Fold these 2 entries.
Entry 1:
Amino acid sequence: MLSKFTVQEVPIFDRVIRFFDFGNQDSLHSIYIQGHLHSTEVNSFSTLCCLVEKLIDNHPSIRIRVVPTCNPFGWEIYLNGNDGRASLPGKMDWNRIFSTVPKKDSTIEKELANELWNLSHGFSQIIDVHTPDFGFPHVYTCEFDNRLLTFDDLPYAISDYTRDGSFQNLNYFEREISSFTLELPSYNIWTSLEQEYWADRIREEINANEQQLSRISTSQPQYWGKMVSLSSRISGVPLLLVKPNEVAKANSEIF
Ligand SMILES: [Zn+2]
């Protein structure tokens, strides 16, 4: 039986994380979707708000939880003119706070990690929505064969470091469930058209999961590769990039 959607909040220190639940809470397959862990990445927040509106209009049958802005600390830090990617005063990358299964702690990093770990408990799939540092849309997975059903048109990056501290990897390696980081484009000004487009794409992915479709389109993505450290010959600035269709050597020059 379909449940109505619910809007709930979980307190974290004197702030809250708001989340939206949809669908059959007993469904075997279920998807947890969060965004805005890096607080600079506002596109992920606006897209997930748009997704929530679409799910309110058209309820999914499977259990879906959407957390459009999962990091109230980072957002506040960013609004105050600081780096939204890192905590204060700890200066930790917000997506490197998940090295081990989180426990309650007095630091904001550990407390946030603990709350997001609890919020995502019991789901069979994780999608963590980000905005890439280098513009183009892509998807991180931990293994090539473990991919989203409807995103093979995007380049895939394989991040198979067990302890990189990301939300995606902790879920994949600790809970042994499907876990992805979906990186939305960041090379243009985000309009309602982009917002609608990517919200529709995520809705299509949910739809494919509802219908238990196997992977749509090709047997492999157009481009894929491992995330490796590369450095620019021109600027000398270290970059993390995907070298499509092969494993690039770490620290090799690419430009
Ligand atoms: Zn990010």
Entry 2:
Amino acid sequence: MKKLFIFFTTLVLTLSSVTFAMTPTYTNDAKFNRGVGNCCYYVDGSASGYANQISSAANNWEVTGYGWNPIYMTEVSSNYATHMDFYGRTPYTDSYLTGTIGAYTSYWNSNSTLVCNQTAFPTYDYFYTEIILNTNESASYDYRVAKHEMGHAFGLAHYLNHYSIMYPALGGMYVTTVQQCDHDTINYLYN
Ligand SMILES: [Zn+2]
């Protein structure tokens, strides 16, 4: 049986309120408290198998094809003071990776306390994020996954629009790249 690959972070959205007009409904107005103009990310050895997916995601968010946004990504070799840290884990080493969970993002303060539980989206600004990829799930290597989780790290929640990289499941996401609505939400948050 084909497994449904879903992303862990959950948010209740009412379909009736979702429109294609650009009022960003898929953010809690929480974001990196130091912006994204010098966004440093670190890929742990445990996530080295995703190096291409992660760099592709960084490039896509920088240059979306929909005009300017403030994102500038730099890969660095340690997780000191980074915005995003990528780790590969399995359900045996991470209790959040249960069922069909392929990846999730968690949000942290500068003193390394959690801003919110991994099952929720942040409601206030945060200092850094951790992106956990389930190395036991082949679908986690899909290039859309790193782009989707990076969107969460920037502060985007789920969006029940099949033409958004923030659609909450791969089966049902009709796009492979960051879309205008995703791009516009970055500008809404950070400009
Ligand atoms: Zn998600």
